[in-house]
Amino acid sequence: MPDLNILLLTFDDMNYDSPGCYGNPMDGITPNLDKLAAEGMVFEHSHVTIGVCQPSRSAILTGLFPNHNGARGFEDIDESVTTLTQVLHDNGYYNGIIGKEDHVAPRRKFFWDEYVAVYNEENGWGRDPEVYYEKSFEFFRNAKDSGRPFFAMINSHDPHRPFAGADDEIRYFGHHTTAPKMYSPDEVYVPGHLPDLPDIRKELAQYYSSVHRGDATIGRILDALEENGYKRNTLVLFLSDNGMAFPFAKTNCYQNSTRSPYILRWPERIKGGQVCHALISGVDFAPTILDILGLRQISGFDGKSFKNAILAGQEVNEDIFTMFFKTANNAVTKMARSYPMRCVQNKRFAYIFNDWSDGRNVFMNESTEGLTFSAMQEAAKEDDYIKDRVHLFQYRVVEEFYDVEQDPNALVNLIDAVEYRDIIQHFRQRMKENLEAAKDPLLDSFIQKVLLREHIAECKKE
Q: 5-319 architecture in CATH?
C-alpha cells in the first residue's frame, strides 16, 4: 500500500482520560478529538513505553525499548539504530516533523525532508492553532508537489507546562499565552489520582485550557489535510507521549503515566465509532506502520504489529513492559535524576518494581512545580490520607501491585494482600522474564531485592 499517507499527531503531556471520547465529563473539552474518534477507532488499552517526552517518542519511531535504542532519557538514539522514518525515506516517502522536533534526535537519523520548529516567540511557543494550520498546510502542499506519499509527525506543545494562564508562563515566555477558552476551577474534572483541593482545581483549570487549545490545533491540522485533498488516503493516528505533569502521572510507571489515548482514522478501511480492546505499547507503532504499508520489518524490534488488532480485533500482547530511567535536567530537578522503575501489566493488573526506593532517596520531577504538589503538602499537615499519598509519591516502596481494572488510579497497593499472592508471584516471574529478554540492567537488582528476599522469607516459614 505504498500510496497511503501516514499522519501521526501527538500531544505533549496529556492524560489518557482528558479527552471527552475517553470519559472526561467536561462539556466540549475536545470536540476535534471526539470527531476523529467518531470517524475512526479508539484504543482502550493503549500505552506508550516510557512516561516522559523524548524517550517515549524515540521508542515510537524505533520500535525499541529505551535501553536498546540509546535514548533512556534526553539523549540521542544510537548510531546503529534504524528508524521508521529511515525505512520510509528509503521507500520514497516525504517525511516531515513539526514541533518537538528536537525530541527525536539526532536529526540525521530520522531523514526529515521538512524539519519545523515552533517552540519560539514567533510561532506562539508551539501553542498557536493557526501556526500549526499554516505549517501543516505548507507541508501537505510540498508533499503533493513532490509526488511522493508522506509521513508527517506533527506535535502540539500543549498541554505541557507552563499551562495557559499560569504564573510560570511569565517566567518561561515573558507573558501569558492566549487560549480559545479559559476554564474556571469549578468547571474541571479532577482525575482520581489527585485530591480535590482548591489550588489543584485552579491548576487543573489551566491544564484543561491547554488541552482544549491543543484540541483546536488538531482541528486546524486536519483542516489543512482535507483542504489539500488528503483525507481519503491518509491514515491518521493520534496519541499523547505520556501522562499529565502532575503527581503520580508523568515520569512514573502508573496507568496515568503511560496509558495514552490512541485514536486512529483510516478511511475506507475502518468504519467510524469502533473500539479496539487489544493491549498495545509504544514500541508497537513502528512495526505496525511497516506492516500496514507492506514494507520490510526492521530486525530486532521489541514491538509487535497491531495491524490485525485494527482490522480483525486480534490480541497483540499478553502483557506489556513499561519503564522509567531518569528525569530531564530542568528548572525543578537541576540535573537529570535517576529513578529506575519497571512495570509489567496486562488489562487487569500492574506490577511495579521501584529499584530506586530505599526510604532515603526523594523523588523529584516537574510535577512538583506549580500549585498541585504544594497544595498536597499543605493539606498533608492535617489530612492523614493526603499525608500518606505525599509520602508514597516522594519515597515509594520497592514493589507495588494494583488491580487496575478496579483501581486505575493506583490508590491501594495490594503487594501484601494474601489473596493475590499467586497472581503477584506470576507477575514477579513475568518481570524477571521481561528483564532477561530486554537485557535490562535492573535484572540483578530485581533478583537481589525481590526474588531472593521472597525465597529467604519462604524458607523461614518452613
A: 3-Layer(aba) Sandwich (3.40)
Q: Is 190 helix (H, G, I), strand (E, B) or coil?
A: coil
CA distances from 72 to 110, 246, 325, 349 (A): 18, 21, 6, 25
Segments making up each domain of the chain, as ranges: 5-319, 323-367+395-461
Q: Helices 198-227 and 371-379, interaxial angle, to 10°?
A: 160
Dist CA 56 CA 66 (whole Å) = 8
Contact (Cβ atoms closer than 8 angstroms) between residue 270 and residue 40: yes
- Tell me how far apart the alpha carbons of residues 367 and 332 are, in angstroms, rounded to a whole number: 9
The dihedral sign for the CA sequence 96, 210, 274, 279 = positive
Question: Which grid coordinates are listed for 421?
Answer: 499472592
Which H/E stretch holds residue 98?
Answer: strand 94-98
Q: Residue 307 half-sphere exposure, CB side, CA atoms within 13 Å?
A: 12
CA-to-CA distance for 7 and 19, rounded, in angstroms? 19
CATH code of domain 323-367+395-461: 3.30.1120.10
How many Å apart are CA 383 and CA 377, to the nearest integer?
10
Angstrom distance (rounded) from CA 292 to CA 308 = 9
DSSP string, 105-154: --GGGS--SEEE---SGGGGGGT-HHHHHHHHHHHHHHHHHHTS-EEEEE
Which ranges in 228-366 belong to alpha helices (H)? 255-258, 285-293, 307-312
pLDDT tens track, the chain, 462 positions: 458 999 999 999 999 999 999 999 999 999 999 999 999 999 999 999 999 999 999 999 999 999 999 999 999 999 999 999 999 999 999 999 999 999 999 999 999 999 999 999 999 999 999 999 999 999 999 999 999 999 999 999 999 999 999 999 999 999 999 999 999 999 999 999 999 999 999 999 999 999 999 999 999 999 999 999 999 999 999 999 999 999 999 999 999 999 999 999 999 899 999 999 999 999 999 999 999 999 999 999 999 999 999 999 999 999 999 999 999 888 788 888 999 999 999 999 999 999 999 999 999 998 998 899 999 999 999 999 999 999 999 999 999 999 999 999 999 999 999 999 999 999 999 999 999 999 999 999 999 999 988 766 666 665
**Omega into 162 within 30° of 0, i.e. cis?**
yes
What's this model's pTM, rounded to 2 decimal places?
0.96
